[in-house]
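S., here's the first fold you wanted:
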Amino acid sequence: MQNQCAAPNCTSLKSDLFSLFRFPLDAERSKIWVEKCQRDDLKDKSPDHLFRYYRLCAKHFDNSDDSSDPVTVITDDAVPTIFDEPNKPPQVKRGKEMDEDKNTKESKKIKSSPPEVDMDDAEITSTVDLYKDYLRSLFEALVLLGEQNIPVSRPKSLEQYTTGVDNFKALLEYCRSCGDEGMKKYLANAEAFSPLELEQLIKVCERCIRKKLMKEVKENKFFSLITDQVVKILDEWYLPVFLRYVDDSNYQHERFVGFLSFDGDADILTERLLSEMINDWGLDMEQCRGQAHSCSGIHYAKIKAFASKLMEKYPMAMLTVRPTQALIISLANSMALSGVQLVMCTLRKIESFFSQSTLLRLELEHAISVIHPDKEEKAKELKEACSQSWTQNHDAFEVTLELLEALLLCVDSVHDNEDLRWSDQITYDALEISKALSDFEFIMALVVLKNTMILLRAFGKNIQGEATDAYFAAGSLKAVLHSLKEVSDNIDVYHEFWTEEAVNLSATMEIPAELPRSLLRKHQSELGTPQPENYYKDHLSVPVVKHTLKEVSELFSDDHLKALRCLSLVPAVIEQNKPAQPDEENMLVFKNDIPNAGSLTAELHCWWVKWNKKGKGDVLITSLQETLQQADVKFFPNMLAVLRLLGVLPTFAADSKCDVAYKRLEMYMQNTPDGAKSKSLALLYVNNDVGYDLDSMVDVYMTTYPVVQDAP
């Protein structure tokens, strides 16, 4: 419809001399145009639809200059007024006039000796090809900006501080000026490119990238679903989703496949997340063999509901942990307790604060020397910890407690800024950290976390370490759970020791042992204020221990532990387990996914014999990835299937290349201004190695929005 006038009985075409003008986007003006057209079929169409698909030619507009020339430009408030009467039949030529017209046509027909060519079809084909080139240039510009994480538009928050056109429009203008024919025809100037068209391009780009990623996953069958911390983009909460799989060359991959909206009630949200992944993304959840989630306390209930529903519908999607975050940090983040969240938030602030400048780290090292003047070995140990991002390590809470006095001395010194070395922002950040460190609730929560998580430190480090460590860690879980249960059963005694430790430390730092400040304000006019020791036992010690015990039990179910013990297939584990016999029972957790369960016993024995006869000069294979890459693993189909399934599980640390997507998303969220963040462009940026097919994007765009646009 865009190539022809929409007025009744009007035959003006795009190829004629008359200009075609789009229907206005404004709802009121669009309604007036429809009424003037006197076409009932247009009344129920939206202004946006009319704008995209319908035109009126210049014959229907009055010429303001009173000249006989056709209208070439109309004003923003122009209204069409010249129309034929509705349902008026076309005029019929009669008599001599009709005979002369007939003779003229016959004469032309006799004179045309070459075969007739349909010029309209040729023109349309040429126009479509030119339009495709135009779209290809648009997608090429969009991909170029997206790969470099250059915002396509100015963030709204920065509009008052910036000048000039947006980056995307500037790039289009450059292409047009360099002779891009499609740009010249369909883009008179960059400002004519609408935000709606840009949004459509971005959506198509996102759809094509995800389609390619899903194709990779489907080709390799099994995968694991991994989610990361919920993020905020343009005032809405989104859940980042990754998929891990093993390709046909037995290499592990972890791909970022997009964001899911994370708003709404837990039950409704769970159904919506599953529906979007299955129906919109095309994910076959029957092939999901593992799931791992990182969540903070405020989102914990929703993530747990989602994980439970996933396990209920797809029992093979076993719940696991993720190696990108230490187990104790993951457990602490999931606790919806004010004291624990205060500790975790402060640790993130500390990491961000000291990563800004080497001078700040030197200031902390100086504070350590001041606090420990006579303990050189202790000071050296703490300084080494500070250089290794201790806030994310398996001993984060222990190190933070040992550093607490030095940390407070350091941030107070920075905030005082007596020698004017620090910027206002740095001194403000130092003040915020100082307030948290000098809060007794923070100290008490840190002590409770340290004494609870110390029981998990070795287990967590090993389970997320090398194959040999993870295999033997699986056998130690029972002892870990027993220790946690013992603490839970005797929490009164343990809490008394923990309180004494916290009070002594706070006294050293001259911090009063009191209730949380928010609770003090609430009870300041009441008489029945609880005692600090009782309050922290009920609201901190008891829930922390119970939560940890419950989470560890759920994360390391029987099936998960059996999968961990399947690491006995790794040659280094076989070497250490020489006296033992191969354990077939653990591998039956994957019995429905291996090619021939009947031959499992014999094949497992042959595998065991092969690696028990390691030659003197043979290099010992220590990792799951190295085992998968052995040339003769293909002769053991059941072993290969089990090893590939282990490679899919999020628990096991993957090849270093497997963390690229996670790190790139982290960089995107940290380095992109809030107003410029886009869930679609983030997908493009993180997956800049997938190999974009611009022609495919053009085809999808023309199928989704099937209109060849006229030049503005």
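And the second, which I think is the more interesting of the pair:
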Amino acid sequence: MQKVLSMCKKGVVGLIMAMAGMAHAQFVSLHQFPVTYTISSALDANGNIYFTKTPELFGFKDQFAPFGVSGCVMGYAEYRSLCQRVNGGFDFSLEGYTSYTQYRVYIPAGTTFFGLSGFLPQGTEYAATVKIGAEPSRTTPLTQAEYEAAKRDQKIDLDFGRLLAGEERIMVHDGGGNISLSGTARLSSNPLPTGQWLYVRVLNGSYIDSLRASYEVDQGKYLAWYNNAVQNVFGSNGDPVESGTPPPQPDTTATGTVVEQPDAQGNMKLVLQVHHTDKEVAAAEKVSYWVGASVPVNPLFFSGMKEVMFLLADAGGLLGPLYEWRLLFQGQPVESVAFERDRILVSNDQTVQIPLNLTKQDMRNLGAKVYFGYQLKNGTFKTLNVIWNPS
């Protein structure tokens, strides 16, 4: 992969991020991105400041627990000495460029203030359709006339109330820097009685910077909700579900788990365990697998982009598979960067051995995250529900 990065100046035209596209096909929970809290800071012997931080936290349940080192970011005074406080409430942000076109964020019971926003350069067009409690219905981009009309109709102080009333709202970048994707909720006199998911589908535009959600909560109501939710409404990924028990998973997409197995030289091998659905096994004789690594890159090499997807592909060794990291160029068949093609699918459970040809530290230094996808015979691309993060 390091060798491939050095080739970036050779003129990548229309780079297709196949794996990223698969990962963006559904509404991605922003709470499945890592959040780290600062516990304390101090000076070392040379006068340099260093920080003690929590491990990376995934899922709403761990990211916003009202106790321990994350408690202070919800305004719990007894934990204020353990980590920094955020304006009496709590928040999280995704650093840098976000290319997801469908995502969602949870607004818990007891919320008194909420806002979801991002940043874009002046003059950049970006429009999204937003709804609370259900996926928005619109899927087509705005015309220029619709864009201008949405800009005139947008009222940040009123939009959240319209969303709570059940409206589907169009949110657009007004030409400044920040863009609101929710309006501003000011509910101090009437905290949100029940938690709700906010769904966002991008209609115009390809990326947003510094996507951020900020909350303030009524501590008593939030604590009562969280203590009840711990028992009743958190799914296995740590995110709240809409009802008291996790909904059944549709029998349409395989699930996966991944285990690390470094070899004797320290190079990382991943063992991917895939459980295909009964419908998938019955519908197809063959399955192909893709392995992609998302890597932050220098924007001088990839204008307008902050991450790029490399695919671990079989280069066709004489004595068996020989894997190397590749880019997918415009017009190049996606099958050419498959990790494994046309495995006979005769049972639900499949094991995929994936030699990364890099150490875990190499992957960490590159800032890489590894995604996994598959395609059945004559089927569409699907992404698995697992991401390997070496950090």
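Why I say that: The chain has two domains: 2-6+250-388, 59-232. The chain has a mean pLDDT of 80.

Talk tomorrow,
H.
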